Amino acid sequence: MTRASVPLPPVDPTRRAPARGTLAQPAPRHEPLAREWADDGWDLPEEIRTVRRDVALETPRSAISWNQSPDLGFDRAVNPYRGCEHGCIYCYARPTHAWLGLSPGLDFETRLVARPDAARVLEREIGRKGYRVAPLALGSNTDPWQPIEAHYRVTRAVLEVLRDWRHPVTITTRGALVERDLDILSEMARAGLAEVGISVTTLDADLARAMEPRAPTPARRLAMIRALSDAGVPVRLMMGPVIPGLTDHEAEAIMAEARAAGARVAWWSLLRLPREVAPLFRDWLERARPGHAAKVTAKIREMRGGRDHDAEFHSRFRGQGPLADLLAKRVALARKRLGYEDRLPKLDCGQFRRPERPGDQLSLF
């Protein structure tokens, strides 16, 4: 039996964590020991404590994370933060917290890591002799515009480096702070160097509040699409994850609202439940949507070959079987009917160059 299949340990009732995706604290899978709350028989109100956000600082040895995944449209990414305060219960990045010796449960939402030197390290890496430019992804793991970005501004510093070096960037976010950086994004977009994907999971505000407790509301995300589009930034609708039996019926409505707001391309992905995410999500279903739990679990497994999760390239995003095929056809028909483009223009890699700095020797040509 894998750790992910083991039931979650009891939640400590002395801890208050308002607007969090989960209170569960499953042990990191790399740790030999696990901690579990046990009732000592006393009920002392003064011992009840609110869980607060904690941010550690990290200086990365490398800012760029490389991948060779054949089903991703990029081979390099920068992640300004570890963990994500948005608290989306289904987040496929939760298991990465185990590498820090932290729980993919509540720790992922409350014990965050900021990387203030990421921009400086990134500039050093892309400035190396032999670096070959290609679009760099922001937001491939955790959200670069999550709430702590308002204070640490790591993502803006990374964007400034990419703008100065004229390096193309592809972005995925659901953070409203992205609008703060419209000055940089619109400048880069005019040069064919930037595109932004906005994630929309549901139009149901109550469901979004329960499922993504500290992320912007669905209406706010549609407003973000409009603001970016009005500023000349090409926008992708990132419709994901689609949760069968819970949000899949909204696909056409989400696509219609996003298209009206200015999204030019629509992309979708099926719910992924790697490692510790599966028991966390099932626990959330039983608490937040008990009437849907059995149906959602059955449909997920039907579209994942009888499992909670499928890690195979390509099928991990789309699923398999009749239900997955039907969903793909529905999205394709809606794309055509609503006038979505097949793809956004390719980002321009030909403008990449070292920026001039004060004191640099002027070129003769």
Tell me briefly what this model is.
This protein has 365 residues and is of the alpha/beta class.
Question: Could you walk me through the main structural features you see in this protein, from its secondary elements to its overall organization?
Answer:
With 365 residues, the chain is α/β, with parallel strands linked by helices. It has a single domain (52-338), classed as Aldolase class I (TIM Barrel), CATH 3.20.20.70. Helices cover 31% and strands 13% of the residues. The chain has helices at residues 106-110, 118-126, 149-152, 154-165, 182-190, 205-211, 218-230, 251-261, 277-288, 293-303, 315-318, 322-338; strands spanning 15-16, 49-50, 54-57, 64-66, 76-78, 81-82, 111-114, 136-138, 169-173, 194-199, 235-242, 265-270. Helix 7 runs parallel beside helix 8 (251-261) and helix 8 (251-261) runs parallel beside helix 12. The protein starts with 14 loop residues before the first strand and ends in a 27-residue tail after the last helix.
Largest sheet descriptor = 7 strands, mixed
CATH topology: TIM Barrel
Helix tally equals 12
State the end-to-end distance. 67 Å
- Assess the beta-strand content as a share of residues: 5-15%
Number of DSSP strands? Answer: 12
Helix content bin: 25-40%
Shape: globular
By CATH reckoning, the class would read Alpha Beta
